Amino acid sequence: MSDQLKSSTDVLSEELRNALSRTPARLFAGRVGNGYSTATALQLRADHAAARDAVYDSVDLVRDFGMERVNRYGFFAVSTLAVDRPDYLMRPDRGRLFSESAEKKVLQECPLKCDLQIVLGDGLSATAVSRYGGQLLDQLWERAHYLSWKLGKPFLVNNCRVGILNEIGRLLQSKVVILLVGERPGLAQSESLSAYLAYQPQPQHTDAQRNLISNIHTQGVNLPDAAVRIINLSAVLMEKRCSGVQIKEEYANHLSRLVNQIKPRLHCDDD
Asked: What domains are defined for the chain?
């Protein structure tokens, strides 16, 4: 009888281990008295610190993307009206508008009326953009180039909110604008990237005119899958000439065979 109980416990423990390996959630953490165990408490504090760092950190073009990539794309950085991170966090509206100097820089550097304009923004997780932004840009660029789309010069927006899409559309008049932006960090994941897509975004547009692919990170949507989904969806936006709630990602299925045939030379390894 004791052997049967032991075997049952072993099976249950293996099932729990398999379940826990599939999620970063704090399940079956246990307790000591009325509190967490020391290990759990320390990990919680470490994850909270990582989330705060993600919000308050910054993106540096050369440090995070490498000089070779900066030179290849002609990468440059601009800022919104938010003058620093505290201002950005307290005044979300300022993160949706370019400063005057930023507008001039964007118009000076970027071609108008491209098929696809890709922009990176630090958002609420500079860590996510630093880690994944350059690699995802490479894959998107390769796939879009294969489709013979006219591509705008990519750039970085500091202190960026999603609404900056509208200003980019107003200035550059691109068909589709993609914003790769850091998501709000949590205690389970502080390095998650989102891709917001909009067809000819304009100042009056809201989230209803945008599409989103989120949770891009090693434990979520991986970079090759994200690149395929983003390009598929971009193609649909161009075909339908709209974006937002009218467009569902499954509408892109009829183009997926074409896009999946693209064999990018680039991969997800760091430079």
From this structure: 54-260 (3.40.50.11240)
